[in-house]
Amino acid sequence: MTLQERYRLVLDHFRRHLPDAETELMYDSPYQLLVAVILSAQCTDKRVNMTTPAIFEQYPDAASLSQATFDELFPLVRSISYPNNKTRHLIGMANMVMDRFGGEIPMTVDELVKLPGVGRKTANVITSVIGKQPNMAVDTHVFRVSARLGLTRNARNPLQAEKQLVRHIPKELVHIAHHWLILHGRYTCTARNPRCEDCGLKDLCRHYRRLSGRKGGA
Questions:
Q1: Residues 121, 132, 163, 202: which is the catalytic one?
Q2: Annotated catalytic, 61?
Q3: Does the structure show a pLDDT above 60 at 25?
Q4: pLDDT of 215 strictly over 60
Q5: Domains of the chain (ranges plus CATH)?
């Protein structure tokens, strides 16, 4: 099987079974999504969704958040992982959005990564979810699933995986392929005890082939 054929089969599978895949973070605006994604680093979407409503009620936009003090915001972030850093990042992000971008969330990766608490993965999430830009955010799920399925080869870090995925996934599908891979990793191709028997991709999965000791073209 060629790499091109592998990508085609994987993408066709997801198109059939997850046609409406989207982020599980709750948001109503680019500002809210940015806050949620900053909070989601090394934290579950479920926990973030439990936390953000109170933040958004008290700080509905970047302007109000930029006026927050650490002591005011921290109690609302306390239940999230790394609350001290994330509290500072949120306030710093809001201040820079106001000072440099006129209160509007920027929509390019190069601009977004200048914001406190925003790395390449977060910037890729924002631009792909909001703007449907062909940017691939590689988190632990995407990194694991793409390697197991043989979509990436010998990628040593998220950036290498990102470059391989974007090179082979059709441009118009990159933004949704990000969600396909995340959701597959979250609910089927889990890090421990993956649900291989329930997976429609197991016959072309390199990881399943190793686990089962099978031989063949996968």
A1: 121
A2: no
A3: yes
A4: no
A5: 3-20+136-212 (1.10.1670.10), 30-131 (1.10.340.30)
Active site residue 215: no
* The pLDDT of residue 153 is above 70: yes
Note the pLDDT of residue 217: 44
Contacts of 110-116 with CB under 8 Å at 24 or more apart are: 115/34, 116/88, 116/89, 116/92
Alpha-carbon gap, residue 163 to 207, rounded angstroms: 21
> Which residue of the set 28, 71, 132, 139 is catalytic?
139
Joined together, the tokens standing for residue 180 give 């396909």
Contact yes or no for 146/201 (Cβ under 8 A): no
> C-alpha distances in angstroms, 190 versus 146, 195, 209?
12, 7, 16
Cβ-Cβ contacts under 8 Å for 127 (sequence gap 6 or more)? 107, 108, 109, 112, 133, 135
Amino acid (one-letter) located at 96: M
The helix/strand/coil state of 105 is coil
